[in-house]
Specification:
The protein is of the alpha/beta class and 251 residues long. It has eight helices and twelve strands. β4 (54-62) and β5 (65-66) form a beta hairpin.
Length: 251
């Protein structure tokens, strides 16, 4: 699904990713871990076409297409979804209208007919009730005045309704209580159908206990320096980064 080769990325003229390589196949769950400043968020932001990220070298192939040739809207319509660390507030844009527009843009891109209002409301009811998510969030403006937990739950509603192929979670578990983390895991696990793939950034083993990764990657100083299975996350939790031979290059 995704092949990244020798990726070098600058932010504000500073090199953050320094020749990163990563392959993700259909149906795989990958966890990305590392100290703050290692480049984790830069990677998923680059995959999402964030304007801060300037690709200097390397290639990214997504579903046999050159991802770097696609703009941010095309990437979303091709099935890439990113849940942000801290979703921004957009006053004046109704949450429900935003979502319905996004769904219809994706359907138009795929040559499908628009979803009508009744089917949209039915879809919202089905998905939110299945995971006990508050559909009243959709009556408000996009993230405006939302608590941290409400923003994360709203991201889950977006995830369910947009039904992406590559799910990228940038610390979606930060600041959440145990029950909320279980809800995140239930939603993601239910979506794993053997074709969808996940790339999740986390500092905590709690989420990885619930969404078992096939691969765990340790990112340090802009490169993946260690890869293993779930046991690597357990070892990291027990010993810390220095204990598994990872030095903090920012010090």
């Amino acid at each position: 699904m995704l092949e990244i080769k020798d990726l070098k990325v600058n932010i504000n003229d500073k090199e953050i990713l320094k020749g990163l390589n990563l392959n993700i196949k259909e149906g795989e769950v990958h966890a990305l871990m590392g100290i703050n400043g290692a480049g984790k968020s830069t990677l998923v932001k680059t995959l999402s076409a964030h304007y801060d990220c300037v690709v200097k070298e390397g290639s990214i192939t997504y579903k046999k297409k050159d991802l770097l040739e696609l703009d941010v809207a095309e990437r979303a319509n091709e099935g890439i979804f990113m849940s942000f660390q801290n979703p921004i507030e957009v006053p004046g844009v109704n949450n429900s209208y935003f979502l319905k527009t996004a769904i219809n843009e994706k359907r138009a891109y795929a040559g499908e007919s628009e979803i009508d209002t009744m089917d949209f409301l039915k879809l919202i009811k089905e998905q939110t009730s299945k995971y006990n998510l508050d559909k009243k969030l959709l009556q408000r403006d996009l993230n405006e005045g939302f608590s941290g937990g409400e923003k994360k739950r709203n991201e889950l509603i977006q995830l369910l309704l947009l039904d992406p192929d590559l799910i990228m979670l940038d610390e979606i578990d930060s600041g959440l209580d145990v029950d909320a983390i279980k809800t995140v895991a239930n939603v993601v696990n239910a979506m794993l159908d053997g074709k969808k793939s996940v790339l999740m950034i986390t500092h905590y083993d709690r989420l990885l206990e619930l969404i078992k990764p096939d691969f765990v990657h340790i990112l340090n100083d802009g490169q993946i320096v260690k890869t293993g299975d779930y046991s690597l996350a357990l070892e990291l939790d027990e010993k810390g980064y220095e204990g598994i031979g990872i030095k903090d290059e920012t010090k």
